[in-house]
Amino acid sequence: MDQFNLSDLSGTFSVGDIAAALSLAFVLSLVIGWVYRATHRHVSYSQSYVQTLVVLGMLVSLIMLVVGSNIARAFALVGALSVVRFRNAIKETRDVGFIFLVMGIGMACGTRFYSLAAIATVAICLVVYVMHRFNWFHLNVQRQVVKVQIPPGEDRAGDVQDVLVAHTTEFELVSMESVRGGTLTEMLYTVRLKRGREPGELLAALREKTSGQRVTILTGYDQTDL
Q: N or C: which terminal CB in the chain sees fewer CB atoms within 10 Å?
């Protein structure tokens, strides 16, 4: 009987290769997770998402070790993973970028391009931090979303637009629909307040023109994740 050897479990790579690939994927994914946490701006921070980044980096590294250069295994893996369905919506595009980053690093570790994985992690994380630190591409324009409900009849829409002309530098009607069984008309505007004007002033002025119906103002909607 042939003597059992650990190489029988590892195929074309050694146990040391497995340990090195998974360990480096873990460390580099951890660095990416910390950079994500440090540069996150909005309110929807998810600890689970960051932990998933770390696990994903190691998982992709494992997959690359399994696949190796075997095309048959690659197609079999694609078929097996095609049954997985992810239903959680990703709220920020940068979150998708971090997912692709850990996947790329995991692939580099799994194919044993260790130097490439380490250098790419440092370089890309540095770029992310610099963009966060110096606020690159920031657009210093704050807009509001105004949702107004008005009773039918008379020229209520014209009164609402008169208020918007007085309080905003620009506004645009986004949608108009009938609500509450046709008893009210709901209009949705995007607006930009004039300098020195407060959202509360606009809210009070609109309520005077809508016979006390509901008025909603969402400030900074283009920079707030909901």
A: N
